[in-house]
């Protein structure tokens, strides 16, 4: 991917198709989803340890918004209670271009129907100074939905927390990279995600099942949707256990079509680096799982969605 100078406003290219472009309606829709998630959540809110990261789906809001809302309720709470957070790092996959590496957004603003988000230019410069990141071209940035589907939720959370002016966002596209490269970029990103002012959003859907996705593994003696759930939860358990190498082995074995597997793996590698060096230890837990439909026959298809939160366990050193 070419290097290019930063300076454009990233348009909300999927507004009006993947979600409504009417700000009032969108605010009502996402607010309702977050309120419902708060009412149904079984997570104990009393501990309120610092939130360091979330994993969120990125399908159209009518499909995955109610699942993403579980994580964004926690993001909203954290922004309200923790004024030290000033930067949100969004790790997302590439669905449309081949990228052998990682690329930062070249935008200065991320437009949403709920207000614009400022891009963290200082954090971008720091990553570019490593010499290992390229810059997305505007067309690549705007064509990719997996980052964009996080921005309205982030804008709403920041508005509710009265910190839209304080929060800056840096999208990073993670390409189809090898396990060795995942570890390499994880090591680079480790000190950045450990900063007390940084919150990380990892964008990923889970299994895409059906002939139109080219994925229909053999099912033995159980309904297909149960098999899908079991396969997804095996991967989710490995993420919770913070085992990037085991997660990579699971992906190779099952071929599970987790579209954000590379962003997840890079983030897990960074988490592992920080834990091993006693910089920061996290507790990761999945708090919501859903499927777009319950597959009963080979003619059906579905996409799985999951939300996870990563809470700071302890801060051993700065």
TrEMBL record:
Cross-referenced InterPro entries: MEMO1_fam
Source organism superkingdom: Eukaryota
Signal peptide residues on this chain, from the entry's feature table: none
Pfam family, one: Memo
Gene3D superfamilies in alphabetical order: LigB-like
NCBIfam families to which the protein is assigned, alphabetical: AmmeMemoSam_B
Stated family: Belongs to the MEMO1 family.
Protein name (Swiss-Prot/TrEMBL): MEMO1 family protein
Species whose genome carries this gene: Cylindrotheca closterium
Biological classification of the source: Eukaryota, Sar, Stramenopiles, Ochrophyta, Bacillariophyta
């Amino acid at each position: 991917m070419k290097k290019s100078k930063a300076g454009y406003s990233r348009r909300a290219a999927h507004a009006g198709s993947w979600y409504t472009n009417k700000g009032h309606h969108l605010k009502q829709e996402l607010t309702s989803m977050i309120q419902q998630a708060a009412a149904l959540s079984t997570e104990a809110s009393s501990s309120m340890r610092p939130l360091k990261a979330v994993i969120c789906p990125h399908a159209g809001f009518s499909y995955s918004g109610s699942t993403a809302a579980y994580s964004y309720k926690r993001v909203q709470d954290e922004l309200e209670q923790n004024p030290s957070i000033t930067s949100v790092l969004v790790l997302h996959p590439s669905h449309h271009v081949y990228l052998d590496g990682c690329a930062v957004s070249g935008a200065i603003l991320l437009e949403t129907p709920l207000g614009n988000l400022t891009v963290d230019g200082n954090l971008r410069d720091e990553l570019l100074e490593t010499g290992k990141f390229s810059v997305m071209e505007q067309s690549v940035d705007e064509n990719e939905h997996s980052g964009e589907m996080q921005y309205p939720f982030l804008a709403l959370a920041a508005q509710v927390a009265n910190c839209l002016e304080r929060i800056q966002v840096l999208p990073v596209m993670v390409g189809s990279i090898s396990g060795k490269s995942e570890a390499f970029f994880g090591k680079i990103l480790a000190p950045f995600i450990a900063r007390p002012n940084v919150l990380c959003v990892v964008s990923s859907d889970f299994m895409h099942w059906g002939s139109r996705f080219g994925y229909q593994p053999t099912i033995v003696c159980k309904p297909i949707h149960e098999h899908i759930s079991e396969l997804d939860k095996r991967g989710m358990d490995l993420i919770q256990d913070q085992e990037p190498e085991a997660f990579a082995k699971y992906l190779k074995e099952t071929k599970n079509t987790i579209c954000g597997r590379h962003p997840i793996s890079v983030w897990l590698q960074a988490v592992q680096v920080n834990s091993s060096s006693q910089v920061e230890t996290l507790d990761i837990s999945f708090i919501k799982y859903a499927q777009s439909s319950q597959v009963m026959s080979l003619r059906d298809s579905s996409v799985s969605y999951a939300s996870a939160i990563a809470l700071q366990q302890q801060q051993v050193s700065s």
